[in-house]
Structure formats: C-alpha cells, structure tokens
C-alpha cells in the first residue's frame, strides 16, 4: 500500500468516526468534538492530495532542494488547510460560547427529547 | 423503548455511513473522464515546479538558491498564503474576526472568581512568557523563510497572554487588545490600498524582494504576517478574557 492511499484511508476513517459521533451522540460538547474530528479528517485529505511519494517540504533551503524540485509536495493544499484550521478555530469558539449560553439557560448540555420535556414541565 | 430507539439510530447511522463510503469509493476508482481522485498528478502541473521555474522575462530560466527572483519567499506555502492568495487570506482574517465577535456577543457576562494559581506557575510564568514571546516574534518575522507564519505566531503570543492571565502577572487589559486588533486590521487594508495606488492592483507586493534566503527578501510578506500575528493574538486573548472574567463573587452552581 502506498503512503498516499494510507493517508486517504486514515482521513476517510476519521471522517466516518466523526460522522458517527454527530449522528448518534446527544451531548452538545461531544457533537462539537465529533465535528472537530471530521474537520481533522478533511484537512488530512486535502494535504494527502498534494503528497508525492518520498516528497520533501516545499521550502527552498539550498540549491539541493531546487535540484530535487520534482520531489516537492504540492503547497496549495497546505495553504488551504491553514485557512481551514483558522476558521475551524473561530467556529468552534463560537459554538462553545453558544453551548455555555444553552447550559446557563436550560441547565443541561443534552439535546435529547426527554430532557427537553423535563425542562418544559 | 428508549434502548430500542437508540439501537435503531445506531443501525441507521452505520447504514448511512456505509452508503456514503461506498459512493466515495466508487468515485475514487472510476475510470471515467475528469479528475480521478487516485490519479497521480504530473510534476509539471504542480505549483512547486512552476513557482521555481517562473520568470517574467524568460520562460526557460531556472532560479538558483540565493538568486534574484520575481517573488523571493523561500517558503512556497507562505508565498501562496501571503502573496498569490493574499486577498483570500485577508478575508479569512475577517472571518476569524467575525466569529470571535459573535463569540463575545454570545458569551454570558457573568463574573467568576479565578482560583489563585500555584506557586510553580507564579514563579515560572515570567520566564516562560519571555521565551514564548520570543518564539512568536521569530515565527512571524521568519514566516517567509521557514515553517511558521502569522497565524501560529498569533496563537503562541496569545498563549503567553493566557499564561500571564492565569498566574496573575500584569497583562494588558482587554481594551488594549481591542485597540491593537482594530489598528492592525486597519493597517492591513491600508497596505492593500497603498499597493493599489502604487501598482494598480489590490495587495500587490510593492516592496522589492532581495536574494532568496535573506530576511528582507519577502517584500510585504513579513509586514503582513506581523499585522496578522498581532490581530490573531489579540482576538484569541479577548476570547480568554471572555472565558475567565475576574470578579468578586464566585457563583458556579
């Protein structure tokens, strides 16, 4: 198995683990954790698409790295992943703030139906 | 009843995931026209190849390390983030700003007492803060030469602020951070407008780049990255301020 395929498989499994958590968990914090796991998997997928077998970092450090230019990995997915990480951080902070508000108002972090009925009574 | 329901949910979730996984697999191995996910791209199509071989004057020229280049950031990822796609990165900074602003609007404004920190944190944090601030400054100044850049540098600087906050060392107030953030945000757009006046295109790299590998070779990249680092650091610091607001009464359940 090549290293690229290993990256693809591991990122797909991360995405599915996260999706499973989002679909089944009732705790808001756990749902947010699962969303972050999905995000990690997608970032890994993007970086894996730019990978070359036996690749080196896309930084020109010496004349040798220019000689080994064909081995450089693609820098564009890495730049995109940087964007995605920063935005993921912002949205996670926002979602956690909403969760704290939810907890202060309702006294629970669960989204199950029974809890909601308990609150309404 | 409840358990049956949750079993049904789990079975449904697994079936849903299997269907999605099967469709992704079908797309990955299909031999139709278009981009195949598992294809190996040709080296000539990669950005790294074209980046090093590009020249405005001569199509077949190749750069040497330490030579003059059209755009001489040694780190190609930085060159993409802070030069080719600078507009994209600016909008990303705005997205971060908006999400942090929404966060501070959503957060409840109740004050909680911070527990006094242990003596280890109290005595070691000034030493650690010095090193953290040094690392942060190094990262955004050298963002075009080595791995790093404005966003990780901002994260490191804000961690230093958090450490000072936890150990009750004197740190700047939240208002100071808001001013720093506003100032760097304005300066980023001012830089774009200056580039527009000079060259006619927004965020053009108007400073002359030097030899690849020099500290002054990036043009406007170090300036942009330092502004981004200050902006991100102050935004994240204000997140910490919102989480831990110091007050008199301690009311948590």
Low-confidence stretches of chain B: 248-253
N-to-C series of helices and strands of chain A: HHHHH
**Quaternary organisation:** heterodimer
What fraction of residues of chain B sit in β-strands?
Answer: under 5%
Describe the biggest sheet of chain B? none
The helix/strand series of chain B, from N terminus to C terminus, equals HHHHHHHH
Strand content of chain A: under 5%
Please indicate the count of domains of chain B.
1
The largest interface is: A-B, 46 and 60 residues
Which structural class do you get from the secondary structure elements of chain A? mainly alpha
Short description, anyone?
Chain A has five helices and no strands.
Write the layout of secondary structure elements.
The complex is a heterodimer of chains A (about 120) and B (about 250).
Chain A: H1 3-24, H2 28-49, H3 63-67, H4 75-106, H5 113-120
Helix pairs in contact in A: 1-2, 2-4
Chain B: H1 2-29, H2 47-53, H3 76-84, H4 86-106, H5 119-141, H6 150-166, H7 174-199, H8 221-243
Helix pairs in contact in B: 3-4, 4-8, 5-6, 5-8, 6-8, 7-8
Describe this structure in words.
The complex is a heterodimer of chains A (about 120) and B (about 250). By secondary structure, chain A is mostly helical. Chain A is built from five helices and no strands. The longest helix of chain A has about 30 residues. The relative contact order of chain A is 0.13. Chain B is an all-alpha fold. Chain B has one domain. Chain B is about 60% helix and about 0% strand. Chain B has eight helices and no strands. Chain B starts with a helix and ends in a 10-residue tail after the last helix. At the A-B interface, helix 1, helix 3 and helix 4 of A face helix 1, helix 2, helix 3, helix 4 and helix 8 of B.
């Amino acid at each position: 198995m090549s290293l690229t395929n290993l990256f693809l498989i591991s990122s797909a499994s991360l995405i599915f683990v996260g999706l499973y958590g989002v679909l089944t968990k009732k705790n808001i914090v756990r749902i947010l954790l699962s969303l972050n796991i999905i995000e990690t998997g997608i970032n890994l997928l993007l970086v894996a698409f730019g990978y070359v077998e036996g690749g080196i970092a896309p930084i020109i450090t010496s004349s040798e790295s220019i000689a080994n230019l064909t081995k450089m990995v693609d820098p564009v997915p890495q730049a995109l992943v940087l964007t995605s990480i920063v935005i993921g951080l912002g949205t996670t902070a926002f979602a956690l703030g909403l969760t704290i508000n939810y907890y202060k108002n309702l006294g629970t972090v669960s989204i199950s139906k029974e809890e909601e009925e308990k609150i309404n009574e | 009843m409840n358990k049956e329901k949750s079993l049904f949910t789990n079975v449904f979730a697994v079936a849903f995931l299997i269907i999605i996984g099967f469709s992704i697999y079908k797309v990955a191995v299909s031999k139709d026209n278009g981009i195949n996910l598992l294809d190996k791209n040709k080296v000539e199509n990669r950005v790294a190849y074209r980046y090093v071989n590009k020249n405005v004057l001569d199509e077949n020229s190749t750069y040497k390390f330490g030579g003059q280049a059209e755009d001489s950031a040694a780190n190609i990822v930085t060159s993409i983030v802070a030069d080719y796609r600078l507009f994209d990165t600016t909008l990303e900074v705005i997205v971060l700003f908006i999400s942090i602003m929404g966060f501070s609007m959503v957060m409840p404004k109740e004050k909680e007492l911070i527990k006094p920190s242990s003596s280890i944190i109290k005595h070691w944090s000034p030493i650690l803060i010095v090193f953290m601030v040094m690392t942060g400054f190094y990262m955004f100044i050298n963002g075009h030469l080595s791995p790093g850049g404005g966003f990780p540098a901002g994260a490191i600087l804000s961690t230093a602020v958090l450490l000072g906050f936890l150990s009750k060392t004197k740190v700047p107030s939240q208002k100071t951070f808001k001013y720093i953030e506003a100032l760097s945000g304005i300066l980023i757009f001012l830089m774009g407008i200056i580039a527009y006046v000079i060259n006619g295109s927004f965020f053009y790299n108007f400073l002359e780049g030097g030899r690849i590998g020099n500290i002054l070779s990036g043009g406007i990249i170090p300036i942009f990255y330092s502004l981004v680092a200050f902006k991100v650091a102050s935004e994240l610091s204000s997140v910490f301020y919102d989480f831990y607001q110091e007050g008199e009464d301690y009311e948590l359940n």
